[in-house]
Protein backbone atom coordinates (compact mmCIF):
# COMPACT_ATOMS: atom_id res chain seq x y z
CA UNK A 1 0.00 0.00 0.00
CA UNK A 2 2.85 2.38 0.87
CA UNK A 3 4.46 1.74 -2.52
CA UNK A 4 1.13 2.53 -4.18
CA UNK A 5 0.91 5.89 -2.36
CA UNK A 6 4.52 6.66 -3.30
CA UNK A 7 3.73 6.08 -6.96
CA UNK A 8 0.64 8.32 -6.78
CA UNK A 9 2.68 11.02 -5.00
CA UNK A 10 5.33 10.82 -7.74
CA UNK A 11 2.66 11.03 -10.44
CA UNK A 12 1.19 14.20 -8.93
CA UNK A 13 4.69 15.68 -8.60
CA UNK A 14 5.16 14.94 -12.30
CA UNK A 15 1.82 16.64 -12.99
CA UNK A 16 3.01 19.74 -11.11
CA UNK A 17 6.21 19.74 -13.17
CA UNK A 18 4.23 19.44 -16.41
CA UNK A 19 2.02 22.32 -15.28
CA UNK A 20 5.09 24.45 -14.62
CA UNK A 21 6.56 23.64 -18.04
CA UNK A 22 3.23 24.43 -19.75
CA UNK A 23 2.96 27.73 -17.84
CA UNK A 24 6.52 28.71 -18.78
CA UNK A 25 6.12 27.85 -22.47
CA UNK A 26 2.78 29.68 -22.70
CA UNK A 27 4.36 32.73 -21.05
CA UNK A 28 7.02 32.80 -23.77
CA UNK A 29 4.34 33.32 -26.43
CA UNK A 30 2.98 36.43 -24.65
CA UNK A 31 4.73 39.67 -25.71
CA UNK A 32 6.63 40.66 -22.56
CA UNK A 33 9.95 42.34 -21.92
CA UNK A 34 12.87 40.12 -20.92
CA UNK A 35 12.97 41.57 -17.40
CA UNK A 36 9.21 41.14 -16.88
CA UNK A 37 9.36 37.57 -18.20
CA UNK A 38 12.24 36.72 -15.88
CA UNK A 39 10.51 38.18 -12.81
CA UNK A 40 7.16 36.48 -13.50
CA UNK A 41 8.88 33.12 -14.03
CA UNK A 42 10.89 33.60 -10.82
CA UNK A 43 7.77 34.32 -8.75
CA UNK A 44 5.84 31.38 -10.13
CA UNK A 45 8.80 29.04 -9.82
CA UNK A 46 8.44 29.61 -6.08
CA UNK A 47 4.68 29.11 -6.35
CA UNK A 48 5.04 25.75 -8.10
CA UNK A 49 7.83 24.71 -5.73
CA UNK A 50 5.50 25.20 -2.74
CA UNK A 51 2.97 22.87 -4.41
CA UNK A 52 5.75 20.34 -5.04
CA UNK A 53 7.04 20.54 -1.45
CA UNK A 54 3.57 20.27 0.11
CA UNK A 55 2.86 17.21 -2.03
CA UNK A 56 6.06 15.66 -0.72
CA UNK A 57 5.08 16.28 2.92
CA UNK A 58 1.32 15.66 2.60
CA UNK A 59 0.50 13.68 -0.57
CA UNK A 60 -2.29 15.26 -2.59
CA UNK A 61 -3.92 11.84 -2.90
CA UNK A 62 -4.59 11.77 0.87
CA UNK A 63 -6.28 15.18 1.05
CA UNK A 64 -10.00 15.46 1.66
CA UNK A 65 -12.02 16.01 -1.49
CA UNK A 66 -13.06 19.55 -0.48
CA UNK A 67 -9.39 20.51 -0.09
CA UNK A 68 -8.53 19.14 -3.54
CA UNK A 69 -11.34 21.15 -5.15
CA UNK A 70 -10.40 24.39 -3.34
CA UNK A 71 -6.74 23.96 -4.33
CA UNK A 72 -7.85 23.37 -7.93
CA UNK A 73 -9.77 26.65 -7.80
CA UNK A 74 -6.72 28.50 -6.41
CA UNK A 75 -4.47 27.10 -9.14
CA UNK A 76 -6.92 28.25 -11.81
CA UNK A 77 -7.62 31.65 -10.23
CA UNK A 78 -3.99 32.64 -9.64
CA UNK A 79 -1.96 30.73 -12.23
CA UNK A 80 -4.18 30.09 -15.25
CA UNK A 81 -5.90 33.46 -14.88
CA UNK A 82 -2.58 35.30 -14.95
CA UNK A 83 -2.05 33.91 -18.46
CA UNK A 84 -5.58 35.06 -19.36
CA UNK A 85 -4.94 38.53 -17.92
CA UNK A 86 -1.70 38.87 -19.90
CA UNK A 87 -3.07 37.49 -23.18
CA UNK A 88 -6.57 39.03 -23.12
CA UNK A 89 -6.21 42.08 -20.88
CA UNK A 90 -8.95 44.03 -22.66
CA UNK A 91 -11.50 41.28 -21.89
CA UNK A 92 -10.95 41.39 -18.12
CA UNK A 93 -14.08 43.04 -16.71
CA UNK A 94 -12.41 43.90 -13.40
CA UNK A 95 -10.24 46.43 -15.30
CA UNK A 96 -13.19 48.39 -16.70
CA UNK A 97 -12.40 51.44 -14.54
CA UNK A 98 -8.63 51.21 -15.07
CA UNK A 99 -6.16 51.85 -17.85
CA UNK A 100 -4.82 48.54 -19.17
CA UNK A 101 -1.36 50.10 -19.50
CA UNK A 102 -1.29 50.91 -15.77
CA UNK A 103 -2.13 47.32 -14.88
CA UNK A 104 0.59 45.85 -17.12
CA UNK A 105 3.24 48.41 -16.10
CA UNK A 106 2.79 47.60 -12.39
CA UNK A 107 2.30 43.85 -12.79
CA UNK A 108 5.76 42.60 -11.81
CA UNK A 109 5.93 45.03 -8.87
CA UNK A 110 2.59 43.88 -7.46
CA UNK A 111 2.86 40.11 -8.08
CA UNK A 112 4.86 39.35 -4.89
CA UNK A 113 2.24 41.21 -2.80
CA UNK A 114 -0.46 38.98 -4.32
CA UNK A 115 1.33 35.64 -4.37
CA UNK A 116 2.54 35.62 -0.74
CA UNK A 117 -0.94 35.70 0.90
CA UNK A 118 -2.13 33.30 -1.81
CA UNK A 119 0.61 30.86 -0.82
CA UNK A 120 -0.47 31.29 2.80
CA UNK A 121 -3.96 30.23 1.75
CA UNK A 122 -2.60 27.26 -0.23
CA UNK A 123 -0.60 26.06 2.79
CA UNK A 124 -3.62 26.38 5.11
CA UNK A 125 -5.97 24.43 2.82
CA UNK A 126 -3.37 21.75 2.04
CA UNK A 127 -2.32 21.16 5.66
CA UNK A 128 -5.79 21.20 7.23
CA UNK A 129 -7.22 19.03 4.45
CA UNK A 130 -4.54 16.42 5.14
CA UNK A 131 -5.35 16.11 8.86
CA UNK A 132 -6.89 12.73 9.62
CA UNK A 133 -10.59 13.01 10.33
CA UNK A 134 -13.26 10.78 11.77
CA UNK A 135 -15.81 9.39 9.37
CA UNK A 136 -17.95 12.26 8.11
CA UNK A 137 -21.04 10.09 8.09
CA UNK A 138 -22.97 8.13 10.68
CA UNK A 139 -22.82 4.35 10.93
CA UNK A 140 -26.61 4.21 11.35
CA UNK A 141 -28.97 3.45 8.49
CA UNK A 142 -31.40 6.32 7.95
CA UNK A 143 -34.95 5.82 6.84
CA UNK A 144 -35.65 8.89 4.74
CA UNK A 145 -39.26 9.99 4.43
CA UNK A 146 -38.88 10.97 0.81
CA UNK A 147 -42.46 12.14 0.23
CA UNK A 148 -42.40 14.49 3.20
CA UNK A 149 -38.99 15.77 2.19
CA UNK A 150 -40.20 16.45 -1.36
CA UNK A 151 -43.26 18.38 -0.12
CA UNK A 152 -41.08 20.40 2.26
CA UNK A 153 -38.57 21.33 -0.47
CA UNK A 154 -41.32 22.13 -2.97
CA UNK A 155 -42.98 24.52 -0.49
CA UNK A 156 -39.64 26.22 0.20
CA UNK A 157 -39.01 26.63 -3.56
CA UNK A 158 -42.45 28.24 -3.93
CA UNK A 159 -41.52 30.54 -1.05
CA UNK A 160 -38.25 31.33 -2.86
CA UNK A 161 -40.22 32.31 -5.98
CA UNK A 162 -42.51 34.57 -3.93
CA UNK A 163 -39.63 36.14 -1.97
CA UNK A 164 -37.63 36.96 -5.11
CA UNK A 165 -40.40 37.91 -7.54
CA UNK A 166 -42.94 39.70 -5.33
CA UNK A 167 -40.93 41.02 -2.40
CA UNK A 168 -37.65 41.51 -4.32
CA UNK A 169 -35.71 40.09 -1.38
CA UNK A 170 -32.27 38.78 -2.34
CA UNK A 171 -32.52 39.85 -6.00
CA UNK A 172 -29.20 41.23 -7.36
CA UNK A 173 -29.36 44.95 -8.06
CA UNK A 174 -32.92 45.43 -6.74
CA UNK A 175 -33.91 47.30 -3.58
CA UNK A 176 -36.04 44.91 -1.43
CA UNK A 177 -39.62 45.86 -0.57
CA UNK A 178 -41.38 45.67 2.81
CA UNK A 179 -38.24 44.70 4.68
CA UNK A 180 -38.84 43.01 8.04
CA UNK A 181 -35.74 43.33 10.23
CA UNK A 182 -34.25 39.91 10.98
CA UNK A 183 -36.91 37.95 9.07
CA UNK A 184 -35.90 39.28 5.62
CA UNK A 185 -32.25 38.37 6.14
CA UNK A 186 -33.05 34.94 7.56
CA UNK A 187 -35.40 33.96 4.72
CA UNK A 188 -33.06 35.38 2.08
CA UNK A 189 -30.22 33.32 3.51
CA UNK A 190 -32.35 30.18 3.70
CA UNK A 191 -33.53 30.17 0.07
CA UNK A 192 -29.97 30.52 -1.24
CA UNK A 193 -27.15 28.16 -0.23
CA UNK A 194 -29.05 26.24 2.49
CA UNK A 195 -31.79 25.40 -0.03
CA UNK A 196 -29.08 24.42 -2.53
CA UNK A 197 -27.76 21.96 0.10
CA UNK A 198 -31.20 20.51 0.86
CA UNK A 199 -32.18 20.06 -2.80
CA UNK A 200 -28.94 18.26 -3.58
CA UNK A 201 -29.11 16.08 -0.48
CA UNK A 202 -32.52 14.95 -1.76
CA UNK A 203 -30.96 14.22 -5.18
CA UNK A 204 -28.13 12.12 -3.70
CA UNK A 205 -30.52 10.15 -1.50
CA UNK A 206 -32.73 9.50 -4.54
CA UNK A 207 -29.77 8.18 -6.54
CA UNK A 208 -28.63 6.01 -3.63
CA UNK A 209 -32.13 4.50 -3.34
CA UNK A 210 -32.03 3.74 -7.10
CA UNK A 211 -35.53 5.17 -7.38
CA UNK A 212 -36.47 6.53 -10.82
CA UNK A 213 -39.49 8.33 -9.36
CA UNK A 214 -37.56 10.17 -6.65
CA UNK A 215 -34.66 10.85 -9.02
CA UNK A 216 -37.06 12.47 -11.49
CA UNK A 217 -38.64 14.56 -8.69
CA UNK A 218 -35.21 15.64 -7.46
CA UNK A 219 -34.21 16.77 -10.97
CA UNK A 220 -37.44 18.77 -11.22
CA UNK A 221 -36.65 20.48 -7.90
CA UNK A 222 -33.12 21.30 -9.09
CA UNK A 223 -34.48 22.76 -12.36
CA UNK A 224 -37.02 24.94 -10.50
CA UNK A 225 -34.35 26.15 -8.08
CA UNK A 226 -31.91 27.10 -10.87
CA UNK A 227 -34.60 28.60 -13.12
CA UNK A 228 -35.87 30.95 -10.39
CA UNK A 229 -32.33 32.22 -9.83
CA UNK A 230 -31.63 32.63 -13.55
CA UNK A 231 -34.83 34.60 -14.14
CA UNK A 232 -33.80 36.93 -11.32
CA UNK A 233 -30.31 37.49 -12.68
CA UNK A 234 -28.38 35.26 -10.30
CA UNK A 235 -25.77 33.10 -12.06
CA UNK A 236 -24.05 31.22 -9.28
CA UNK A 237 -26.65 28.49 -8.82
CA UNK A 238 -26.32 27.32 -12.46
CA UNK A 239 -22.54 26.89 -12.26
CA UNK A 240 -22.65 25.43 -8.76
CA UNK A 241 -25.33 22.95 -9.75
CA UNK A 242 -23.53 21.75 -12.88
CA UNK A 243 -20.29 21.43 -10.89
CA UNK A 244 -21.99 19.49 -8.09
CA UNK A 245 -23.87 17.15 -10.45
CA UNK A 246 -20.66 16.43 -12.34
CA UNK A 247 -19.07 15.03 -9.16
CA UNK A 248 -22.26 13.42 -7.79
CA UNK A 249 -22.97 11.51 -11.00
CA UNK A 250 -19.34 10.40 -11.19
CA UNK A 251 -19.56 8.97 -7.65
CA UNK A 252 -22.87 7.30 -8.48
CA UNK A 253 -21.51 5.77 -11.70
CA UNK A 254 -18.34 4.58 -9.97
CA UNK A 255 -20.49 2.79 -7.37
CA UNK A 256 -22.79 1.27 -10.04
CA UNK A 257 -25.82 3.31 -8.92
CA UNK A 258 -26.43 4.74 -12.40
CA UNK A 259 -25.55 3.75 -15.95
CA UNK A 260 -23.10 5.41 -18.30
CA UNK A 261 -25.95 6.72 -20.48
CA UNK A 262 -27.16 8.86 -17.54
CA UNK A 263 -23.73 10.50 -17.32
CA UNK A 264 -23.68 11.06 -21.10
CA UNK A 265 -27.18 12.58 -20.97
CA UNK A 266 -26.03 15.00 -18.25
CA UNK A 267 -23.03 16.06 -20.37
CA UNK A 268 -25.28 16.70 -23.38
CA UNK A 269 -27.81 18.71 -21.34
CA UNK A 270 -25.06 20.70 -19.59
CA UNK A 271 -23.46 21.59 -22.93
CA UNK A 272 -26.76 23.12 -24.04
CA UNK A 273 -27.60 24.81 -20.72
CA UNK A 274 -24.25 26.42 -19.83
CA UNK A 275 -24.26 28.88 -22.79
CA UNK A 276 -27.29 30.53 -21.11
CA UNK A 277 -24.79 31.91 -18.59
CA UNK A 278 -23.62 34.70 -20.90
CA UNK A 279 -27.15 36.18 -21.10
CA UNK A 280 -27.82 36.48 -17.37
CA UNK A 281 -26.10 39.83 -16.67
CA UNK A 282 -28.02 41.54 -19.47
CA UNK A 283 -31.31 40.03 -18.28
CA UNK A 284 -30.58 41.36 -14.79
CA UNK A 285 -29.84 44.90 -15.99
CA UNK A 286 -32.93 44.94 -18.24
CA UNK A 287 -35.23 43.86 -15.40
CA UNK A 288 -33.64 46.51 -13.15
CA UNK A 289 -34.73 49.08 -15.76
CA UNK A 290 -38.31 47.82 -15.52
CA UNK A 291 -38.43 45.45 -18.49
CA UNK A 292 -40.57 42.31 -18.34
CA UNK A 293 -38.89 38.93 -18.48
CA UNK A 294 -39.59 38.35 -22.21
CA UNK A 295 -38.41 41.84 -23.13
CA UNK A 296 -35.32 41.35 -20.91
CA UNK A 297 -34.44 38.11 -22.74
CA UNK A 298 -34.79 39.90 -26.08
CA UNK A 299 -32.56 42.75 -24.90
CA UNK A 300 -30.00 40.22 -23.62
CA UNK A 301 -29.93 38.42 -26.99
CA UNK A 302 -29.29 41.67 -28.83
CA UNK A 303 -26.46 42.68 -26.47
CA UNK A 304 -24.76 39.28 -26.60
CA UNK A 305 -24.83 39.25 -30.41
CA UNK A 306 -23.63 42.84 -30.76
CA UNK A 307 -20.79 42.53 -28.24
CA UNK A 308 -19.88 38.97 -29.31
CA UNK A 309 -19.93 37.79 -25.71
CA UNK A 310 -18.75 34.18 -25.25
CA UNK A 311 -19.54 31.77 -22.44
CA UNK A 312 -15.83 31.18 -21.81
CA UNK A 313 -15.11 34.89 -21.24
CA UNK A 314 -18.11 35.25 -18.93
CA UNK A 315 -17.17 32.14 -16.99
CA UNK A 316 -13.49 33.06 -16.57
CA UNK A 317 -14.37 36.62 -15.54
CA UNK A 318 -16.76 35.30 -12.91
CA UNK A 319 -14.03 33.34 -11.13
CA UNK A 320 -12.46 35.85 -8.75
CA UNK A 321 -8.73 35.62 -8.69
CA UNK A 322 -5.55 37.48 -9.45
CA UNK A 323 -7.23 40.18 -11.56
CA UNK A 324 -9.24 41.54 -8.61
CA UNK A 325 -6.10 41.76 -6.48
CA UNK A 326 -4.39 43.64 -9.32
CA UNK A 327 -7.36 46.00 -9.56
CA UNK A 328 -7.42 46.62 -5.80
CA UNK A 329 -3.72 47.52 -5.75
CA UNK A 330 -3.93 49.77 -8.84
CA UNK A 331 -7.16 51.58 -7.91
CA UNK A 332 -7.91 54.36 -5.44
CA UNK A 333 -8.63 51.64 -2.85
CA UNK A 334 -4.89 51.12 -2.34
CA UNK A 335 -4.66 54.57 -0.74
CA UNK A 336 -7.79 54.13 1.38
CA UNK A 337 -7.50 53.42 5.08
CA UNK A 338 -8.97 50.06 6.08
CA UNK A 339 -8.54 48.24 9.37
CA UNK A 340 -8.78 44.58 10.32
CA UNK A 341 -12.52 44.97 10.94
CA UNK A 342 -12.94 44.93 7.15
CA UNK A 343 -12.17 41.21 7.34
CA UNK A 344 -15.25 40.77 9.50
CA UNK A 345 -17.65 43.42 8.15
CA UNK A 346 -18.73 44.79 4.75
CA UNK A 347 -16.61 47.93 5.18
CA UNK A 348 -14.43 47.17 2.15
CA UNK A 349 -17.09 45.26 0.18
CA UNK A 350 -19.19 48.39 -0.41
CA UNK A 351 -16.18 50.52 -1.38
CA UNK A 352 -14.85 47.88 -3.78
CA UNK A 353 -18.19 47.41 -5.56
CA UNK A 354 -18.58 51.16 -6.08
CA UNK A 355 -14.98 51.43 -7.32
CA UNK A 356 -15.31 48.62 -9.92
CA UNK A 357 -18.80 49.46 -11.19
CA UNK A 358 -18.54 53.23 -10.83
CA UNK A 359 -22.04 53.16 -9.37
CA UNK A 360 -23.10 53.49 -5.74
CA UNK A 361 -26.31 52.89 -3.87
CA UNK A 362 -27.46 49.72 -5.65
CA UNK A 363 -28.06 46.40 -3.97
CA UNK A 364 -25.34 44.53 -5.78
CA UNK A 365 -21.81 43.40 -5.10
CA UNK A 366 -18.53 42.68 -6.83
CA UNK A 367 -16.17 40.50 -4.80
CA UNK A 368 -12.53 41.52 -4.62
CA UNK A 369 -11.50 38.10 -3.22
CA UNK A 370 -10.37 37.56 0.36
CA UNK A 371 -6.74 37.65 -0.78
CA UNK A 372 -7.15 41.26 -1.95
CA UNK A 373 -8.59 42.21 1.46
CA UNK A 374 -5.55 40.65 3.15
CA UNK A 375 -3.22 42.66 0.88
CA UNK A 376 -4.97 45.99 1.55
CA UNK A 377 -4.78 45.35 5.30
CA UNK A 378 -1.04 44.66 5.26
CA UNK A 379 1.99 46.94 5.17
CA UNK A 380 4.77 44.42 4.54
CA UNK A 381 5.19 41.05 2.84
CA UNK A 382 5.57 39.22 6.16
CA UNK A 383 2.43 40.90 7.51
CA UNK A 384 0.33 39.70 4.59
CA UNK A 385 1.67 36.13 4.84
CA UNK A 386 1.01 35.84 8.59
CA UNK A 387 -2.39 37.52 8.37
CA UNK A 388 -3.31 35.20 5.49
CA UNK A 389 -2.37 32.09 7.48
CA UNK A 390 -4.25 33.26 10.59
CA UNK A 391 -7.41 34.46 8.81
CA UNK A 392 -7.78 31.49 6.48
CA UNK A 393 -6.96 28.99 9.24
CA UNK A 394 -9.71 30.47 11.41
CA UNK A 395 -12.26 30.65 8.60
CA UNK A 396 -11.55 27.16 7.25
CA UNK A 397 -11.63 25.43 10.65
CA UNK A 398 -14.77 27.22 11.86
CA UNK A 399 -16.80 26.92 8.66
CA UNK A 400 -15.79 23.30 8.06
CA UNK A 401 -16.57 22.26 11.64
CA UNK A 402 -19.99 23.92 11.54
CA UNK A 403 -20.85 22.33 8.19
CA UNK A 404 -19.83 18.74 8.93
CA UNK A 405 -20.81 18.69 12.58
CA UNK A 406 -24.45 19.04 11.54
CA UNK A 407 -24.45 17.48 8.07
CA UNK A 408 -23.07 14.26 9.56
CA UNK A 409 -26.43 13.78 11.29
CA UNK A 410 -28.14 13.26 7.92
CA UNK A 411 -25.36 11.36 6.14
CA UNK A 412 -25.37 7.56 6.20
CA UNK A 413 -22.90 6.48 3.49
CA UNK A 414 -19.67 7.44 1.77
CA UNK A 415 -21.33 8.71 -1.43
CA UNK A 416 -23.43 11.21 0.52
CA UNK A 417 -20.34 12.23 2.52
CA UNK A 418 -18.29 12.85 -0.66
CA UNK A 419 -21.16 14.85 -2.16
CA UNK A 420 -21.28 17.03 0.95
CA UNK A 421 -17.51 17.56 0.62
CA UNK A 422 -18.23 19.01 -2.84
CA UNK A 423 -20.95 21.28 -1.43
CA UNK A 424 -18.64 22.53 1.33
CA UNK A 425 -15.87 23.26 -1.19
CA UNK A 426 -18.35 25.34 -3.22
CA UNK A 427 -19.33 27.31 -0.12
CA UNK A 428 -15.71 27.98 0.82
CA UNK A 429 -14.88 29.09 -2.72
CA UNK A 430 -17.96 31.35 -2.52
CA UNK A 431 -16.42 32.76 0.69
CA UNK A 432 -13.05 33.25 -1.04
CA UNK A 433 -14.85 35.21 -3.78
CA UNK A 434 -16.01 37.69 -1.13
CA UNK A 435 -14.56 40.92 0.23
CA UNK A 436 -13.91 40.33 3.92
CA UNK A 437 -17.30 40.28 5.68
CA UNK A 438 -16.63 36.99 7.51
CA UNK A 439 -19.56 37.62 9.86
CA UNK A 440 -21.92 37.55 6.87
CA UNK A 441 -20.62 34.13 5.76
CA UNK A 442 -20.70 32.90 9.36
CA UNK A 443 -24.40 33.81 9.55
CA UNK A 444 -25.06 31.99 6.29
CA UNK A 445 -23.27 28.90 7.60
CA UNK A 446 -25.41 29.07 10.74
CA UNK A 447 -28.51 28.93 8.56
CA UNK A 448 -27.02 25.99 6.60
CA UNK A 449 -26.34 24.15 9.86
CA UNK A 450 -29.88 24.89 11.03
CA UNK A 451 -31.26 23.50 7.75
CA UNK A 452 -29.44 20.20 8.38
CA UNK A 453 -30.92 20.09 11.88
CA UNK A 454 -34.33 20.82 10.39
CA UNK A 455 -34.01 17.81 8.12
CA UNK A 456 -32.96 15.64 11.03
CA UNK A 457 -35.76 16.78 13.33
CA UNK A 458 -38.69 16.92 10.96
CA UNK A 459 -37.93 14.81 7.91
CA UNK A 460 -35.52 12.04 8.68
CA UNK A 461 -36.33 9.08 10.85
CA UNK A 462 -33.34 7.24 12.36
CA UNK A 463 -33.93 3.52 11.93
CA UNK A 464 -31.31 1.65 13.92
TrEMBL record:
Give this protein's Gene Ontology molecular function annotations.
ligase activity
State if Cell division is listed as a keyword.
no
| Keywords for the protein's UniProt record, in alphabetical order | Ligase, Membrane, Transmembrane, Transmembrane helix
Q: Report TM segments.
A: 12-32, 38-58, 70-89, 109-128, 149-167, 179-205, 212-231, 237-253, 260-280, 385-403, 415-433, 439-459
Q: Which residues form a coiled coil?
A: none
In its keyword annotation, does this UniProt entry include Chloroplast? no
Its name, as the record gives it, is O-antigen ligase
What is the organism field in this record?
A: Pseudoalteromonas lipolytica
Amino acid sequence: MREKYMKIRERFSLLILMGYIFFSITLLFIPLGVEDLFLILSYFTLFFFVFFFLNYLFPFFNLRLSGKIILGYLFFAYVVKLLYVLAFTERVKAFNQLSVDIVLDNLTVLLPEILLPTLGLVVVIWVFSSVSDKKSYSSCNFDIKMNKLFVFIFIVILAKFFIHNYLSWGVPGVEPKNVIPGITGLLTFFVRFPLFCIVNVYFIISIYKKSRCYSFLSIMLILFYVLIDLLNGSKYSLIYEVFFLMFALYFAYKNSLIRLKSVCLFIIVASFVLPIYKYINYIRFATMDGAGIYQAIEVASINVNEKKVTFLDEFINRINGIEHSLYALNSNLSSSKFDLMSLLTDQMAVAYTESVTGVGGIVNSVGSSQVAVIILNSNFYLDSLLLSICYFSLSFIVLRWMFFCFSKKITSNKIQALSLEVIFSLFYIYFLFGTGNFIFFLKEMLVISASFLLLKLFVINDAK
